[in-house]
Each structure stands twice: as structure tokens, then as C-alpha cells.
Amino acid sequence: MGPILYRWHFDLPIVLMAIGLLYLYYKLTGFRWPRKSVLFILAMLLFLLVTCSPPHYLGMPEQPQTLRRFSSFLSKRAWLAWMTGVGIMWFWHIPSIFNHMMSDMPGLAVMPLLQAASLLFAGILFGWPLFGPYPEDRVHPLSGIIYLAAACISCSLMGLLITFAPLDTYYPFAGIKRMDNLWGISPKEDLQTAGLIMWVPCCLLYLGGCLLLLRRWLTGDDRRRNKHIIAVSN
Question: Which candidate, 207, 208, 198, 210, places its Cα nearest to that of 90?
């Protein structure tokens, strides 16, 4: 088996669906190229990345031994996955770094692409000890609840700081006029909304994960999966 990096699989139905969505979009726009079309293109690229890229391959059966050793290594060092996931999220919200990144947005800027790639990597690594492909390498559900609760506290603290931050903290948005944006909100309202989204809805995701882990613990899902894996291997 070759390196995981080369495990791209462009299934014909997925490619045809992506082409169909692109055709439908441009038919609805009169086959023009509106400025916001780039957002739709990026969404389609993200869709193909999720469904056709190596990270999708990681969830498929018969993973290579390298992946198995990595999973075993990470299961004993869940704190490393937590620190990486939370640390990268905090890093990109440091005002000086965020402001510099936003000033590098036009064209094929490097920093926004680096941010997206690092956040994707951080998300995979953060969730691995909880929902990795090998049930025997996952942390105990109760430990996982503490794992997610600590991340929720960190996310809430960041949302709190952003919500009540001075307007010029993230200065690329400070000069936006009320009528220059789709929702007609002021820069201060925009900053507060961003903080509240990170503060409340995002923590609901952590709560959902905690409930899923609690269900796993009460029903013994992982234990049953482990027994099934052992039975199949024998």
C-alpha cells in the first residue's frame, strides 16, 4: 500500500454530482461569474476534499500499519491531540496574527490557505482520541467527556474575549460601514456576533459530543465493537 498522501479516490457519482451542482449554480446565475461565486467554488472544493481526500481514506477499512501505530501512539497521549487542536484555534485568533492574515486575503494568499489547512489538521487530530477508526485506541468515554468539557471552557473563554474586545482589536473589520455588508450590522455588532457564535453554538457541539460519549459508556458500544474486531481477526 502506498503512502496515505496518495489515497485520493474520485468516485464517478461524487464527481458527477459536483459537476451537476456547478451547472445548476451557473444556470441559476445566468451563466455569469458573480463576485461571490468564489465562495461557492470553495465550498465545492471543500466537499471534494472531504469525500475524496486522504482524510476520508483514514475512515475506510484495512488501514496500513503506519496508521495503526499512529493511532496507538495518540491514544496514550490524548493531551497532545487536545493541546494541538485547542492551541491552533487560539493561535489563529491572536489579533496580530489574525490581522496580518486578513491583510493577505487577495488572490491566492498563503496565510488563509495555511490557516484552513492547519485548522483541518487540528480538527482531525483533536477528534482522533474520541472517534478514531480503532475503538480499542479511543479514550474512555468518561475521560472523553472531561476532554470535551475542557475544550468547551477554552472555546467559551475565547468567545467571551472576542465578544467584549475593543472594536479595533481586529482592525480589518473596524472600518466596515453598516451599509457595506449583507446584514446591515455595524462593525461592533459584527464582532459581538462572531464572539457569541463561538461562545454558544460551538459549545453546543461539545455538549453533543459529551452526550454521545455518555451514551457510548452506558451502552458499551466500544466494548461490543472490540469483541467483534477480535472475533473477526481470529
Answer: 198
Kindly state whether residues 48 and 105 are assigned to the same domain.
no
Q: Is 77 in the same domain as 160?
A: yes
Mean per-residue pLDDT, 8-16: 74
- Res 230: pLDDT: 46
Contact between residue 123 and residue 85 where contact means Cβ atoms under 8 Å apart: yes
CB atoms within 10 A of CB 155: 20
Beta strands in 79-179 (DSSP E): none
Which amino acid belongs to residue 22?
Answer: L
Residue 26: phi and psi, rounded to 5, are -75, -25
The pTM of this model reads 0.63
CA distance 66 to 190: 45
Type of residue found at 192? Q
**58 falls in which pLDDT band (50, 70, 90)?**
low
Q: Which domain holds residue 197?
A: 66-233
pLDDT of residue 129: 92
- Reference 39, options 88, 99, 91, 105; nearest CA is 105
Q: Which residue, 53, 73, 74, is CA-closest to 4?
A: 53
* 140 secondary structure, DSSP code: P
Q: Could you tell me if 52 and 85 lie in one domain?
A: no
Q: Does one domain contain both 143 and 71?
A: yes
CA separation for the pair 85, 81 (Å, rounded): 6
